[in-house]
């Protein structure tokens, strides 16, 4: 339990910045190989889109997971659902949608990279579709999106993960679309009720604090991403935001989590 525990938020294709940040935290060596020893490192999803080398980031994280013998792992973010949905369904219209919707359109609007689609292999797909969307580590509830929509899949971490795996291993476009839509919602813990909302989520799923990516810290503070140099604790201390907006000029934060949670 005393091993160091780190999280990294939304990388969005910025492989070089990620490698430098992990090296600066002594988790990878100058060649980009794992040297973190007992440390545990969780990525909170959104490896792809909006940046040059999303597949490179996925391959790097897959390699670290192997080199670290599982101490490095990752959650699925909404952009992984988008990447895979685009790959699987392309411009097919979502049958149950009231107005025309497709993964192709959303993918284009949300920074999808053709080069990532072209390089996506079955090995990447198998690895991504077997990652969790939620996990709890030492009292930290790790999640990609700052939303309560996860609870629509179940009342426990296992139920939620199983439900999402069922969707991602299946061929139901409506279900896939709902998965993307739910995980794209945000800001559940902001505002005067934020702490109560976080408590509600922690009460159901467990953990003593929420740690999330997905929503850029600078937007919450109303400053430029360049001004961010650490994670943001908010909602009366119950929530930690770690996405510093790498794709919009912010730093790649490698955040060490406390043990007294
Ligand atoms: Mn996201």
From TrEMBL:
Pfam families: Metallophos. One of its GO terms (molecular function) is hydrolase activity. Gene3D superfamilies: 3.60.21.10. InterPro entries: Calcineurin-like_PHP, Metallo-depent_PP-like, Ser/Thr-sp_prot-phosphatase. Residues 5-216 form the Calcineurin-like phosphoesterase domain. PANTHER family: SHEWANELLA-LIKE PROTEIN PHOSPHATASE 1. This is Calcineurin-like phosphoesterase domain-containing protein. It comes from Saccharothrix ecbatanensis.
């Amino acid at each position: 339990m005393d091993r160091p525990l780190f999280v990294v938020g939304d990388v969005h294709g910025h492989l070089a910045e990620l490698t430098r940040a992990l090296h600066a935290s002594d988790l990878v060596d100058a060649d980009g190989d794992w040297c973190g020893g007992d440390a545990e490192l969780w990525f909170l999803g959104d490896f792809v889109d909006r940046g040059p080398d999303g597949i490179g980031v996925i391959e790097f994280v897959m390699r670290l997971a192997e080199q670290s013998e599982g101490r490095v792992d990752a959650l699925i973010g909404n952009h992984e659902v988008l990447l895979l949905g685009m790959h699987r369904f392309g411009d097919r219209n979502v049958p149950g949608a009231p107005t025309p919707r497709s993964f192709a359109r959303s993918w284009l609007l949300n920074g999808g990279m053709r080069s990532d689609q072209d390089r996506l292999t079955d090995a990447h797909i198998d690895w991504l579709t077997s990652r969790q969307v939620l996990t709890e580590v030492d009292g930290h509830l790790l999640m990609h999106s700052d939303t309560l929509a996860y609870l629509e899949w179940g009342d426990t971490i296992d139920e939620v993960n199983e439900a999402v795996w069922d969707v991602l291993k299946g061929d139901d476009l409506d279900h896939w679309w709902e998965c993307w839509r739910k995980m794209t919602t945000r800001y559940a813990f902001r505002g005067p009720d934020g702490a109560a909302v976080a408590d509600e989520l922690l009460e159901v799923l467990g953990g003593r604090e929420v740690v999330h990516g997905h929503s850029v810290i600078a937007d919450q503070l109303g400053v430029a991403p360049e001004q961010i140099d650490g994670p943001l604790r908010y909602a009366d201390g119950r929530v930690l935001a770690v996405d510093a907006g790498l794709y919009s000029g912010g730093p790649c934060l490698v955040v060490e989590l406390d043990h007294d949670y």
